[in-house]
């Protein structure tokens, strides 16, 4: 989807962003990834924490492009639709996988225990890799939003 069609469907709105907002999101990502890596956490708990981190990384990419996801039609669903419009193949390329994870997380919310440890570990690994990709993209394409670390 393009930003134009996302705007027309009221899935996103144009909105400026600043470094402080991105830094708060990055801190949240770090916290959720740390939570997901805790020993003894259930598979559902690990998956949910890793999903939250990955979704927040998607939000960071969308915000860096100057858009905010709207809840009309489903906020998390709109996040992964909007992620496809981010002009970076590595960042946008995770949209389909993350949308599958969204569906699994929804099911896990109602059917516990639902997820395997292998699924949770896979998402955690991918979320950590995604963190690196999004942060690299931010530094390269939106240095005004990063501290350059």
Question: Topology, please?
Answer:
Layout: H1 3-8, E1 12-14, H2 19-36, H3 43-64, E2 67-69, H4 75-83, H5 89-92, H6 95-110, H7 117-141
Helix pairs in contact: 2-3, 3-4, 3-6, 3-7, 4-6
Structural notes for this entry:
The protein is mainly alpha-helical and 149 residues long. The protein is 67% helix and 4% strand. It has seven helices and two strands, in the order αβααβαααα. A two-stranded antiparallel ribbon has the order 1-2. α3 packs across α4, α3 crosses α6 and α4 packs antiparallel against α6. The protein is globular. The model has no long low-confidence stretch (mean pLDDT 93).
Quick summary:
This protein has 149 residues and is mainly alpha-helical.
Provide the descriptors you would attach to this structure in a database record:
2 strands; 7 helices; two-stranded antiparallel sheet; mainly alpha; 149 residues
Number of helices: 7
Overall pLDDT confidence: 93
- Give the helices and strands as they follow along the chain: HEHHEHHHH
Question: How much of the polypeptide forms β-strand, as a percent range?
Answer: under 5%
Shape: globular
Main sheet, how many strands, which sense, barrel?
2 strands, antiparallel
What integer value in Å does the Rg equal?
15 Å
- Class by alpha and beta content: mainly alpha
Summarize the amount of helix as a percent range.
55-70%
Any low-confidence stretches, pLDDT <50, length ≥5?
A: none
């Amino acid at each position: 989807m393009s930003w134009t069609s996302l705007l027309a469907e009221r899935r996103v709105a144009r909105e400026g962003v600043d470094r402080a907002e991105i830094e708060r999101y990055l801190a949240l990502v770090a916290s959720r990834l740390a939570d997901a890596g805790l020993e003894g956490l259930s598979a559902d708990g690990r998956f949910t924490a890793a999903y939250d981190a990955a979704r927040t990384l998607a939000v960071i990419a969308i915000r860096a492009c100057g858009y905010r996801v709207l809840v009309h039609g489903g906020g998390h669903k709109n996040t992964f639709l909007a992620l496809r419009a981010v002009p970076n193949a590595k960042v946008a390329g995770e949209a389909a996988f993350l949308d599958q994870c969204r569906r699994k997380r929804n099911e896990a919310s109602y059917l516990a225990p639902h997820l395997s440890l292998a699924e949770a570990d896979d998402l955690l690994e991918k979320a950590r890799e995604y963190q690196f990709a999004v942060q690299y993209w931010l530094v390269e394409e939106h240095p005004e939003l990063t501290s350059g670390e």
